[in-house]
Amino acid sequence: PVDRSPEIQEARLKLPILAEEQVIMEAIKENPVVVLCGETGSGKTTQVPQFLYEAGYGSENDIIGITEPRRVAAIAMSQRVSLEMNLPQNVVSYQIRYEGNVSTETKIKFMTDGVLLKEIQKDFLLSRYRVIIIDEAHERSVYTDILIGLLSRIVPLRQKKGSPLKLIIMSATLRIEDFTENKKLFRTAPPVIKVDARQFPVTVHFNKRTPQDDYAGECFRKVCKIHRMLPSGGILVFLTGQAEVHSLCRRLRKMFPYRGKQGSKDEKDEDAQEAKALRAFKKSKPKKKVNLPKISLDNYSALPMDEGDEDREAGGDDDEEADRSDFDLDLEDAGSDEDKESDSSLPLYVLPLYSLLAPEKQAKVFRPSPSGTRLCVVATNVAETSLTIPGIKYVVDCGKVKKRFYDKITGVSSFRVDWTSQASADQRAGRAGRTDPGHCYRLYSSAVFSDFEQFSQPEITRRPVEDLVLQMKDLNIEKVVNFPFPTPPSTDALVAAEELLIALGALQEPPKTGRLRVMQSAKLSCPITPLGRTMASFPVAPRYAKMLALGKQHDCLSYVITIVAAMTVRELFEELNRPALNDEEKVILTGKKARVLQMQKIWAGQGPAQKLGDLMVMLGAVGACEYSGLTPTFCDRNGLRFKAMMEIRRLRGQLTTTVNSLCPGVSIFLDSKMQPPTESQVHYLRQIVMSGFGDHIARRIQPEELLDEKWRNGYKTPLLEDPVFIHPNSSLFRQLPDFVVFQEILETTKMYMKGVSSIEPEWIP
Ligand code: ADP
Ligand code: MG
C-alpha cells in the first residue's frame, strides 16, 4: 500500500493516464510486451512505475527498471516518483554513468539506457528485473534502439526459463510503427495503448522573416515583448546549447530583475560561486603529479557517449563563441536604448534547464515561481518531451537543434546547429497547451518550417557503426545483420564496419571460398577475437582502442594514451588564421602566430622524433601544458585551446584507469613531467599509429612521375582520385616524407591530411 499525501493524490487524479490504469495493467498482465504512447505530460513516466509497484511488481527481490535517454530525466523522475509515493530515495532510486543512489532496498530504478546496456553485458537475462520500461523510445537514441532489439530476444528467453520479464515501451505519439510493425523485432505485434491527453489548443505564430544568425537575440526580443504585452503565464524558450541558455538567462535577468528575497540571493550566490571557483581555479598551483580519481570500469560504457550532446559546443571555436556572445550582449545592452535600463515590468523569474545542469538547479523549474513574478524557463531540447514544466502558456522556439554530424567517408564527427524536424517543432509547441490554451512563437517562417524534415532520423542511421558492431560481437551476437534493429543501419555501413574491425584484428577473418572470394554473408558474421574483447572495453572508437591495446609493448603506453586522447579531442590549436577585427588585433595575432610556430617547432622535437610529425607536436603540447600546470594563460600564450587541453587531461585519466584495471601488471600513472620518447619508442609509436590507421596511408608523388601540375607536392591515397596534401602548418610540411599515415582528410581550399606522421615503406603490407 502506498501512502500518498492528499495534494499529490489530487494532482494525480487530474492526469489522463490515471483513468487508464486498469486497461494498462490488464494489457501488461496479458502480454509480454506492451507499447504505451501518449502526449508528453500525460503521466507515463511518473505513473506507470507506480501502477506496477502497486500491482506487486516490485516485491521481494524484483526490481522495476526504467531507462531514460537523458540523465536529467533519470534523476528528476526518480525524485518525483519517490516524492509522490512517499518512499525514500533508496527505494525509488536512479543510476547514471557516474552516480546514483541505488541500494539493496531499491524497488524502482531509473537509469540511463547506457547503464542498462552495460548490465546486459554482465547478465544477459537481466534476472534481477521483473519489468523493464524503455521510456522516451521516440527519441531513438542508439542505446534505446539496441536495448529494444536485445530485449525482444531476452523476453522470450525469460519466458522459457519460467521467470517472465515484462517489457513496456513508452513513447510520445510519434511514428511507433518502427516498433510495432517490424516483424523481425516482434513476431506478434505488441498491443498499443494510447493515452489521450487533454491538450489545449495552441496557436502557432510564425515569424514573417527568418533571422539569419542571431536567433538568440530574436529570442530575447520575443520574450521581452511577450512579458510586456501578454497576460500572465509561464514562458518556455527553446535554444540549442548550454552557453546560449546561460547567455539569454543573464540578459533577461538584467532586463527584468527579480529582487525577491530568495531568488535574487540564489542567483547572486550562483554568480558569486562561479566567480570564486574560477578565481580559485586560475590561482591553483600546478601539482607535480596529477592524481586522478579511480573510475570503476563498470561505470562507463564503451559506446560513444552522445548523451548530453546539446550541452556540448558546436564547431571548434566554442569557448570563444560563448565569451564573444556575452561580450556582444553587453555592448548591445549599453548601446540600444531599448536595452539601456532595466525594465520596470513585473519581475521575470528566469531559470535555465539543460542536461548537464546540477540536479538541484534543474528541480527549481518544477516549483511554483515566487508570487508577483512570471516564470521563464530557458531550455535546450530536454524540455521537448523528457520533462514537463507546469504552468507554461507561451513557447518561444528558435527552431534549431544541436546535432552530431558524421562524414560518411572519413567518419569524422562534428557538432552543428541545424533546423529541427517538424515533429520536434510540434512537440515544442505542444508544451504551451498543457494547462490552458497557449501560444507558440516560431522564430522562422512557415516556408522554412515546411522545408524541415518530417521526423528526425534515428541516430543509428546517421553515423558509422564499427563501435556498435564491436560491442555487439562482445555480447556474442555474431550476425549483426540479423540483429533486430528497430531501424537497421544500412548494409553498407555494417559491411564497412566489419571490414574495418577485421583489418584491426578485432574480428576473425572469414574463411575464403573458391577463388579467394569472401561471401558477403560470411563477411557479416565474423566472431570476435581476444584482442577485440580487450578493445571493446576501452571508451574510444575501435581504431584508437587498437592503438591502446598495442601500446603495452615497448613501454609506450603512457605516450599512446596521450596521443589517443589528443587525437580524439578536436582542435587542440586555436584558429589563428582568422581575420583581425582591427589593426591592434592584427598586430597581436601576427605576434601570436610567430610564437605559436616557434613553439610547435620545439614540440615537434629533433632528429628521429620529428618523424612522428603532427602527433609529436600533440605530445609535446600536452607535455608542456601539464608541466606548466595547465593554466588558461599558458594555453592562450601558446595558441592552445584551454578547454581542449582540459578534456585531454580528463580523457588521459579515464584511459589510464581503464588500462590499469585491464592489465593489472602494467601500473601506469599520469606524470606531469613526461620525458620525450626515446628513438626506439618513436619508432614503435609510428608503427602503433599505423596499426589503427593502416588504411589511411598516402604516398608522395615523385617529381619524375609528375604528369599534372596539380599533383605537385601531392600525395596519392588508395581511395581518392585526387591528390591530398600536407598542410603548411604541419611539422612535416618542410620534409614531405615519401610515405605517411594520417588521421583524417579535411577539405578546405585543398584536401589536407590532418594528424600526419611519417612511416617506412617496408611497413606497408
Ligand atoms: P509523460 O511521461 O507522459 O510525459 P510525466 O509523468 O513526466 O508525463 O508528467 C506527468 C505530470 O507530472 C506533468 O503534469 C508534470 O508537470 C508533473 N510532474 C512531473 N515531474 C514533476 C515534478 N518534479 N514536480 C512537479 N510536477 C511534476
Ligand atoms: Mg515521460
Fold and architecture overview:
- The chain is an alpha/beta fold and 765 residues long.
- A seven-stranded parallel sheet has the order 3-4-2-5-6-1-7, with helices on both faces.
- It is globular and about 85 Å long.
- The relative contact order is 0.08.
- Bound molecules: adenosine-5'-diphosphate and magnesium ion.
Provide a quick synopsis of the model.
The protein is of the alpha/beta class. It contains 26 helices and 22 strands. The relative contact order is 0.08.
Alpha-beta content class = alpha/beta
Enumerate the spans where pLDDT stays under 50 for 5 or more consecutive residues. Answer: 281-340
Shape: globular
Helix content: 25-40%
Largest sheet: 7 strands, parallel
Query: Biggest sheet, strands in spatial order?
Result: 3-4-2-5-6-1-7
Number of helices, where a helix is a run of at least 4 consecutive DSSP H or I residues? 26
SSE order and pairing:
Blueprint: H1 6-13, H2 21-30, E1 33-38, H3 44-54, E2 63-68, H4 71-85, E3 92-95, E4 108-112, H5 113-122, E5 129-134, H6 142-161, E6 166-171, H7 177-180, E7 192-195, E8 202-206, H8 215-229, E9 234-238, H9 242-255, H10 261-283, H11 318-335, E10 348-353, H12 359-363, E11 374-379, H13 382-385, E12 392-397, E13 400-406, E14 413-419, H14 422-430, E15 438-442, H15 446-451, H16 466-474, H17 491-503, H18 520-523, H19 530-536, H20 542-550, H21 557-568, H22 583-603, H23 613-627, H24 632-637, H25 642-662, H26 679-692, E16 697-700, E17 715-716, E18 725-726, E19 739-741, E20 744-747, E21 751-754, E22 757-758
Parallel strand pairs: 1-6, 1-7, 2-4, 2-5, 3-4, 5-6, 8-15, 9-11, 9-12, 10-11, 12-15, 18-21
Antiparallel strand pairs: 13-14, 16-17, 16-19, 19-22, 20-21
Helix pairs in contact: 3-4, 5-6, 8-9, 9-11, 16-17, 16-19, 19-20, 20-21, 20-26, 21-23, 21-25, 22-23
The structure holds adenosine-5'-diphosphate and magnesium ion (MG).
The site of magnesium ion (MG) has 3 residues, from helix 3.
